[in-house]
Design goal:
By secondary structure, the chain is α+β, with helices and mostly antiparallel strands. The protein contains 2 helices and 15 strands. Helix 1 runs antiparallel to helix 2.
């Protein structure tokens, strides 16, 4: 409705102009406010739709029986999640609804790590992930390594990643710098599984995996200093790898070579019931040969393979 302004003969022209200016300004303000509210409603609906789709595809890519459905869902999820991480303030959003994806964050909240595992057909697996910095920078983790022969000695970029689902991140102070130890898991193959302890570092803001800090013995040869710990063990065994704050060590099962019991498996690695550790000293993780003395005559084969958390995934979440 347009206002009709009557200007009396004795009415100040300046006051009239002022009133007209106020009306126009208020109209512009109300229009801007309306547009902003409408935009927020649209964005909120868009975010809600995206979160719904992310949750759906995340569930399908992990739990669908058909490999084609899992692979298709992973492609859609990866596309949507990449777009989501590029949105403003995504670093500070809560993605807890993606219950099949571990989300790790360092103490000062300067970066996050997202990683997940996709089962392909014929007991083959692939891995995906992102490192997201607080400033919005995103590094895609690309699972391109097919051979594990030299993985214990390599320093690896995000583009040449070996592939794992990380379940824990620990921080340590080494020479006044932060050292990040990642603990990861890979279903890997029909007969063998992997657990990995790796060093994540940043050089001028660029992440890399691996550092020559895991030391066995004192002769300094290549075989005695590794860039990461890689436990390659039988898929029907239960192997632990984690940091023990009470012992102040990285602790894992001691593995021994044995013939596998699965049809067609051949030689494999199995835990013997004892434990070994790695203790941080002078910037190096030094091997501790024996922590507990109980050694079994037969290598134990407990089930399920993901520790003692029956009915749970590697991340501790309940399976459906």
């Amino acid at each position: 409705m347009l206002h009709k302004w009557i200007v009396p003969s004795n009415f100040s022209l300046g006051l009239y102009v002022l009133q007209l200016t106020i009306v126009i300004t208020m109209s512009k303000y109300l229009l801007t406010l309306f547009c902003a509210l409408l935009t927020n409603v649209c964005l909120s609906q868009e975010s809600s739709d995206r979160y719904r789709d992310l949750s759906f595809y995340c569930d399908v890519m992990i739990n669908a029986d058909d490999a084609k459905h899992r692979i298709y869902a992973q492609e859609k999820f990866n596309e949507l999640f990449t777009d989501e991480l590029k949105t403003d303030s995504s670093f500070y959003k809560d993605y807890g609804f993606l219950k099949w994806i571990p989300i790790l964050e360092n103490d000062d909240k300067s970066f996050r790590i997202y990683s997940w595992e996709l089962k392909l057909d014929n007991d083959q697996y692939n891995h995906f992930g992102f490192i997201q910095m607080a400033d919005g920078t995103i590094f895609k983790l690309e699972n391109t390594l097919s051979e594990l022969e030299d993985i214990s000695y390599d320093i690896i970029s995000p583009e040449d990643w070996y592939g794992a689902m990380y379940y824990k991140l620990e921080e340590f102070e080494v020479n006044r710098k932060k050292q990040y130890v990642l603990f990861g898991y890979s279903s890997f193959s029909k007969f063998n599984k992997l657990k990995i302890a790796d060093i994540l570092s940043f050089n001028e803001g660029i992440p890399s995996f691996g550092q020559e800090v895991f030391k066995i013995g004192n002769d300094g040869t290549r075989g005695d200093v590794k860039t990461r710990l890689v436990l390659n063990y039988s898929s029907d065994a239960n192997v632990s790898l984690n940091y023990n704050p009470g012992l102040k060590m990285i602790v894992h099962d001691h593995l021994i070579a044995r013939m596998g019991r699965l049809p067609g498996q051949g030689p494999t690695q199995l835990p013997d019931g004892s434990y070994v550790g790695w203790k941080l000293k002078d910037g190096m993780w030094n091997y501790v040969e024996k922590i507990y003395d109980q050694v079994s005559k037969e290598a134990p084969r407990p089930n399920p393979i993901l520790d003692k958390r029956k009915g749970s995934s590697i991340t501790g979440k309940k399976n459906k």
